[in-house]
Amino acid sequence: MTLGLLLVAAALLLGVYNFVDNLRAEWAARNILEQLVVKVPQDDLKIYERYPWISMPEKEIDGDVYIGYVEMPERGISLPVMSQWSYRNLRKAPCRYKGSIYTGDMIVCGHNYNSHFGQFKQVMPGEKVRFTDMWGNVFDYVVKGIDTIPTADVKAMEDGDWDLTLFTCTMDGRNRITLRCEKSTENIY
Which tens digits make up the pLDDT trace of 140-156? Predict the structure, then answer.
């Protein structure tokens, strides 16, 4: 009976920890998003159209480096995106895993916190995604495919000719829910 009570207490503590960690991540992302001030784009800032291989502009906030923010209006998601991924960075905000928005091959990973990419299991093809870089350039996308990929299958994550890929782990951590997006010619707002 004591063992059972200890297990129930451990489960409750884990639940409380996950709840608090989700709230902390939501607060951190909102705080950073408020500090990401992007300039109104000007024609000369669209240099990426002529030179897509240039590095994406970055902004440092509290020692962390950001490249822009991602939005999914139908989901109420608006999150900063960090320049490089690490487990530490993922606890704050989604991170660029690989690629560039300018070359049309960017992959962004994020935690499955409810306030981050936790809603991906409900996303449907046709939903809109927007990425805004630090120069204020806006890139609109449409979700065209949703894949579930085993966690260790990096090749499958990087395969395909997708303009933007967003992914997060499933709750059990065994797979990744992956949104495959194509660039849209329409403004999503």
Answer: 999 999 999 998 888 88
